[in-house]
Amino acid sequence: MSVRAPGLPSVAVQSERQRGGRGSILSRQSRDHAVLQSLMLAYEHTPSVRKRAKIVDTLAERALRHAFAEETVLFPAYRKYLGEQADELSAHIEGEHQAVNEMLVELQSLDPHDPEFDRTVRKTFAVIRDDARNEEDALLPQLQQVATGRQLRAIGRAWEVSRRTSPTRPHPKVSRRPPGNLLAALPLAVSDRAKDAAQHVVPPASGVRVLGAGLLAGAAGVAVMTLGEKVEQALTGRPNSYVPSRVLERLTGLHPADEAERDVLNLAMHWGQGTLLGVVRAAMARRGVRGASGAVAFTGLRLAVDQTLENGTGVGAPPWTWPRDELVIDVAHKAVYAVVTGSVADRLVRTRG
């Protein structure tokens, strides 16, 4: 939906003086639209995936601040001055804001190298451009006809305060109208800025982020693998394996005094090895080894590490000497671990370059 107010000049073709001065809501909106448009053009002309992702981050925050200021200041003023006739257009633009919020949330879960990332970005751009046209061609010119220059500047000042103090991240479940958005604004703004600060200190592709994400991903993979093992053991009657404990005993020289201590060592090796290997998978994600190919490679790596430790310590035997059913079960559990670990790592770590 793109509309034009009959007989009224678009804000896009007006001079700053015609708009009511630099501080007028018309001028502030127009300048912000120009910034958003320049960011969208920069995205179109930037070949680097990493730089494109950064442009999207910058544009997302700018667009969200812009939309929040409209919903808390501009649209209420528009409805106040023009009454019921203003509600249809402002409601339509609020719907566009909701769509942008939802697409920005979707973008957070996508790898910038994924073709779906670019498609979603372009859909988001289309909505933002339509939003700007509706405002500059219809909403703002209509407001200009019924509000004085002083009133337009007062709305502009309030709009700017709201824009500067708004949340910085998408929140599609928050109301698009007062008082719901105003009540949510303060805690969300504080929360968003804390997250922004943390991300600035520990960027998504930094070594510290890779380490933390890898440990978390590895622990998640172990947890799901362990659950799968328990289900499989309940169905097959297979007893617990104490190979991890025996490997750790050989590596450390520890000698458990009883079965309880051996259980502790078994869990320590089982969880410790899987959690630490998650850091390797996070490093793979950082370098672009992701998705299905990453899962296959990481499954092979996990099996290779297991066999190196078990055979190097003399605890285990080469896989080709195992009964076929035991080999299938072991590979299946390690594949589950690799897929879960990879899924978490891919989501938490951005690709470098």
Please provide a written account of the structure.
- With 353 residues, this protein is mostly helical.
- It has 2 domains: 191 residues, Four Helix Bundle (Hemerythrin (Met), subunit A) (Up-down Bundle); 142 residues, no CATH class.
- Helix content is 75%, strand content 0%.
- The longest helix is centred in the N-terminal third of the chain and has 34 residues.
- The radius of gyration is 28 Å and the shape is elongated.
- The mean pLDDT is 91.
- C-alpha termini separation: 38 Å
| Element order: H for helix, E for strand | HHHHHHHHHHHH
What is the CATH domain class of the largest domain? Answer: Mainly Alpha
Major beta-sheet overview: none
Low-confidence blocks of residues = none
DSSP strand count: 0
Derived from helix and strand composition plus strand pairing, the structural class reads mainly alpha
Q: Provide the CATH topology of the largest domain.
A: Four Helix Bundle (Hemerythrin (Met), subunit A)
Radius of gyration: 28 Å
Q: How would you state the average pLDDT, rounded? A: 91
Number of helices: 12
Pfam families: Hemerythrin
Domain Hemerythrin-like: 30-143
Region (Disordered): 1-27
Protein name: Hemerythrin domain-containing protein
Describe the structure using short key phrases.
353 residues, mainly alpha, Four Helix Bundle (Hemerythrin (Met), subunit A), 12 helices, 75% helix
